[in-house]
Recover the amino acids of this structure.
């Protein structure tokens, strides 16, 4: 993640947060599936 994006997220920029979310959502979802063993429960984390 570039420094300016992190700074924008920290300052409350919703577009920066959306970009960050979009970049990492699939990784977080896969992690949640592995943790829970349940795709439905993991979907709740999205």
């Amino acid at each position: 993640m570039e420094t300016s994006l992190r700074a924008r997220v920290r300052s409350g920029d919703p577009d920066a947060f959306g970009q960050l979310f979009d970049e990492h959502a699939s990784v977080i979802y896969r992690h949640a599936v592995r943790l829970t063993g349940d795709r439905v429960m993991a979907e709740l984390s999205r």
Observations:
- Residues 20-46 form one domain.
- The first helix runs from residue 3 to 10.
- The chain has a mean pLDDT of 88.
